[in-house]
Amino acid sequence: MRRGKELGIRSIEWVEYVGLAIIAIATVVAIGQEVEVMVLAREVRLGDLLLLFIYLEVLTMVGLYVKSGQLPVRLPMYIAMVALARYLILDMKDLESWRMLAVAAAILFLAIAVLVIRYGHVRYPYDEQLDGTPRTREQEGTHGQR
């Protein structure tokens, strides 16, 4: 029974790493495609830069997950805020005022959620790691930086 459980855990970990590799490769390809578009157009626009920033955030998220085995909840929220800001900036002329307000409110709600999560991590730090082992002194200094 124990051997089967270990095999299952290893299989899931392997699938996770394959999925992360696919996400990283796809993101690098998307960065290359976006750079190609900018070079061919001989123009760099704000939307292009924001899209590249989103791609870099995705790569950062993959890197953090590989290094720590944990996915900080705040990173996808940052990506969502940048994506909504990009949408707002690029389509502002065509958006109705109520939709513009809704997108701005969504960004505000995400920012408030990030602050609440950050406050929770600082105010109520984890005493144990995900595997149940106690934190070391070196890790105690980083518990609020997820």
Features:
mainly alpha; flat
Low-confidence spans:
141-146
H/E element order? HHHHH
Structural class: mainly alpha
Strand content: under 5%
Helix percentage range: over 70%
Sheet of most strands: none
Q: What integer value in Å does the Rg equal?
A: 20 Å
Determine the mean pLDDT: 86
Query: How many DSSP E strands?
Result: 0
Give the N-terminus to C-terminus distance in angstroms: 35 Å
Chain oligomer state: single chain
Number of helices: 5
Q: State the shape.
A: flat
Pfam family, one: PsiE
Protein name: Protein PsiE
GO biological process, one term: cellular response to phosphate starvation
Subcellular location: Cell inner membrane
Description:
The protein is flat. The protein contains 5 helices and no strands. It has a domain at 72-146. The chain has helices spanning 2-41, 46-68, 74-91, 97-123, 137-140. The chain has 146 residues and is an all-alpha fold. The relative contact order is 0.07.
